[in-house]
Amino acid sequence: MSKEKQIKYVSLFSGIGGFEVAIHKKWPDAKCLFYSEVKPSALKVYESHFPSHLNLGDITNITEKKIKEIVKDGCDLLVGGFPCTNLSSMANINGNSEGLEGPKSGLFWEMIRIIKIVNKITGKKVNVIFENNFSMTNKNKKLITNIIKEEYPNIYMTPLNGAEFGVQRRKRIFWTNFSIEKSNIKCTQTWSDVLDKVDTNPNISDNYLNLMNKCITVKRKENLKDILQVLKKENDQYYFEKKTINNKYKSRW
What we know:
The protein is an alpha/beta fold. The chain has 8 helices and 9 strands.
C-alpha cells in the first residue's frame, strides 16, 4: 500500500477501535468507509475517539447492496477481530467450545462473506488483517487458515504477544496476506502511556475472581478436594490459596 494515497479501510468486530488506532497512527489521513460493532460499552469508547465513522451495526444485516454503495470508489484494507467466544481455551472451561459452529465465533463466516463482496466490488484482493485468540486449538487454527486460503491462497498466520511491543501480555494470532516482520520489534510503552493513574495495587473485580475460581474448579472436576481459590487479602493484595486434605500453601499473585 502506497503512503502517498489515502488509505480506505473497513473494520469488522471493531470493539473499542484498536485496529483504528494502529491504522491512523500509520496513515493519519486514512478513511474508515464503515465499521461494524454492536456492544454498547465498546461503542461508547469507539465513538468518543472516532465520532465521524459510519457504523453499520450487526454484521449479519450488512447487505451487498449497502457495501456496494459505500466501497464503489475503492477499498484498500479490511480488518477484523472476530469473536473468540467459542474458540479460546476459556470456551473449553465454560463448556461452549463449538468453534466456528458456535453462535459467536461462527460470525467468522460473515466476515468471510463481506470480504468476498468487497473483493468482488473492487475487482481486486484488498489487503486483510484478521485477528483472534492464540489459545484456540491447533485444529481450529488450521481450519481458519484453510478457509481464508480459499479467498487468499498466500495467507500468513503470525502469532504475536502483546508483551513484545506493549505493556499487556496477550498472545494473539494475525492472519494477513502480507508477511509481518518480527525481528525488529521493540517495546517502548509503559503503563503510564495507557493509564491515567498507575496503581501499584490495581482493583480486581469480584466477577474476575469468581471466574478464576470457576476455571480451576472445572479443570479439576475429577478431584474437588484440591481446589485453587483466589482470596482477597489485606491492603488489596490478592493470593492464590490451594487447599487439600494434607497440605496448604499460599503464593503471591
